[in-house]
């Protein structure tokens, strides 16, 4: 049931936000959403001084909630 719920909600979403630290499932959900043509954002935690190059698939990578709100408001 969890898979069906998550898949349905990913299809309904306009944008998806990955909040780090995050596990494999969350990263896969972001990838699926981006593959569906959804806007994908990544909110890095304050301890992240490096990040994976594949995060470039996201619309934007931000480090503060304030920056995330600005980005979401601009869409």
Quick recap:
With 75 residues, the chain is an alpha/beta fold. 44% of the residues lie in helices and 17% in strands. The chain has helices spanning 2-12, 24-35, 65-74, and strands at residues 15-19, 39-43, 60-62.
Write the layout of secondary structure elements.
Layout: H1 2-12, E1 15-19, H2 24-35, E2 39-43, E3 60-62, H3 65-74
Parallel strand pairs: 1-2, 2-3
| Binned strand content | 15-25%
Spans where pLDDT lies below 50 across 5 or more residues: none
Strands, count: 3
| Cα-atom radius of gyration | 12 Å
Structural class: alpha/beta
In round numbers, the mean pLDDT is 92
Number of continuous helical runs: 3
The ordered H/E elements are: HEHEEH
Which percent bin holds the helix content? 40-55%
Question: Can you offer a commentary on this structure?
Answer:
This protein is α/β, with parallel strands linked by helices and 75 residues long. The protein contains three helices and three strands; from the N terminus they run αβαββα. It has helices spanning 2-12, 24-35, 65-74; strands at 15-19, 39-43, 60-62. It has a three-stranded parallel β-sheet, with helices on both faces. It is globular. The mean pLDDT is 92.
Which key phrases capture this entry?
alpha/beta; 3-stranded parallel sheet; 3 helices; 75 residues; globular
